[in-house]
Every structure is written in structure tokens, then in C-alpha cells.
Amino acid sequence: MLLAPALAIYTLFAIWPLIDVFILSFQDWNGINENREWVGLKNYYHILYNDPVFWVAFRNTVIWTVMSVVFPPVLGLFLALGLNQNLIGRAPLRAIYYLPVIIAPIAVATMWRWMYDPFFGLFTQLLTNAGLGYLIPDWLGDKDVALYSIFVAYVWQSVGFSMVLFLAGLQSVDRSLIDAAHIDGANRRKIFEHVTLPALRPTITIVLVLSTISSLKAFDIVYGMTGGGPAQSTQMLALWAFTQSMEIFNYGRGSAVSVVLLTITLAIVVPYMSWSQRREEDVQ
Questions:
Q1: Per-residue confidence band for 193, with pLDDT thresholds at 50, 70 and 90
Q2: Bridge partners, residue 38, by sequence
Q3: Which of 115, 207, 248, 284 could disulfide-link 122, Cβ–Cβ 3.0 to 4.6 Å?
């Protein structure tokens, strides 16, 4: 009875929209007409075989996901290891590195779009003052550079989240094991490999899963910086689902893209979680 109000709200605003999107993916609806025409698998057939933008978005999402499970977690781990030491001003530094996480992605997009301005942006001015003006690309206008320019902004915003999780995991490392390793003559690298890293395995699993989910649904920062351009070169699956539904007014195809994205997410996360759990059980 105590859970009923929360479950009702969750069902209304999470479970039912999920079910409705799944049903809508088999229908043709423009968001205005009362009637929804049942078209079966037509929407899925169209996005898979007749929609070239879908595969561009799919490729970009794969690239983004691979980079997202490598760079932010690795940088976050190094920051956590550094800020776990007895440093002067350690607490303020932790707050500074975490601050971008709490900034709205659309605000981050606006800020970095200004820094990437090809005429008055921060990076343009720095390269010009250093005499390297010939190296200045069109950060967000070059289709070969734009996706990676956006990803740099994403790393700046998200690395603090990984750092905080790793800092929490480092607190669970048994200090007596580190002291024993020191007595045995182990250096810092050996202690990290054989004591710290094994103790961080549960945290690494959490960080990788959350990074994967976050990267697969990347939307705000891409929408705010390029809107999927230039020439769809930064289009993502989540953004393409939004575009199909809210701009092209084809809710059926937009829902089909969303269902495909959900399927990909589950296909990656569920097996990895099962494998990680079995691995932890074997270690224990």
C-alpha cells in the first residue's frame, strides 16, 4: 500500500509510454489524426532498408559508444587515483572536476558551441595567437571533425561522474592489504594491478554499464551543438528518433528507431551484467 502511489506514477510516466511506443512502432500516425493505421513491420522495414540516415546514425552511435566506454572511465579513474591522495585542496578539486556533471547538457552545448566558433571562439583564438592558425578546422562544420568535437565536450561534462564512482570504490579498498603489499616490497604499479584494480571490479562494472547506457541515448549535447549536421554527419539514433517523430511527424518510424535503440541497449547491457555477476561469483 505504501508503494502504490509511487508505482502508479512510475507506471503512468514510464511503463505506459514504453508500451505505447512499442505499439506505435507498428502503426502509422502523424501525431494529429485520431486514427492510427496498423502497418505491421513496415516502419522497421523502412528504417532498415530504405532509410540511409538510420545507418549513419547507427554508425555514429557505435563510434560514440566505443569512445564513451574508454575515455571518460579511464580519465575518471586517473583523476580518482590522483584525488584519493593526501593533497592540499583535495576537496575543492573534487568539486571542480564534478561541477560540469550538474550543468544541463544543453547549457554545455551552448558554451562549447561558442568555444568552437570558427571566428571568435576560444580554440580559434588560442591557435591563432600561437601562430597555428593554419591548423584551425571548422570544428562543427566539417563532417569529418564535428562528431569528435562534440565528443570532447561530452567527455568534459561526463568524466566527473566516473571520477566520483571510482572515488567511492577506492574507499572500499582494504588498507591492510595495501600496507601488506608495501611491506612485501611491492611498488605502486604492482599494488594497483594486484590490490586496487581487483577491488574496483564491481565499480568498473557499474561505470561501464552506466557509460554505455548514457552513450547510446546521447541526444541533448548533439542536438544543442549541431542538430545532427552537417549533412547528418553527427546524427545519432536517439536524435533521429526525435527528428522522425517531432519534426517529420512520423511517430511510427520514430518509435521504431526507439525500439531498435532499446533492443541494442538490452543486447549489450544484459549479457555484460550477467557475465560480470558470474565472474564475481567465481572469484568469491
A1: confident
A2: 27
A3: 115
Q: Contact at 8 Å (CB) between 252 and 43?
A: yes
For residue 90, what pLDDT is reported? Answer: 86
**Is the model's pLDDT at 253 over the cut of 80?**
yes
What integer pLDDT is reported at residue 282 of this predicted model?
67
Q: Which residues of 63-101 are buried (b: 16+ CB within 10 A; e: fewer)?
A: ebbebbbebbbebbbebbbebbeeeeeeeeebeebbebe
C-alpha span between 162 and 212 (Å, rounded): 12
Mean pLDDT across the stretch 26-42?
A: 91
Contact 207, 143 (CB under 8 A): no
φ, ψ at 29 (rounded to 5°): -150, 135
Kindly state the DSSP code that residue 149 receives in the 8-state scheme. Answer: H
Q: Is 66 helix (H, G, I), strand (E, B) or coil?
A: helix
- Would you list the DSSP string of 1-44? --SHHHHHHHIIIIIHHHHHHHHHTTEE--SSSS--EE-TTHHH
27 bridge partner residues: 38
Q: At residue 224, what is the residue type? A: G
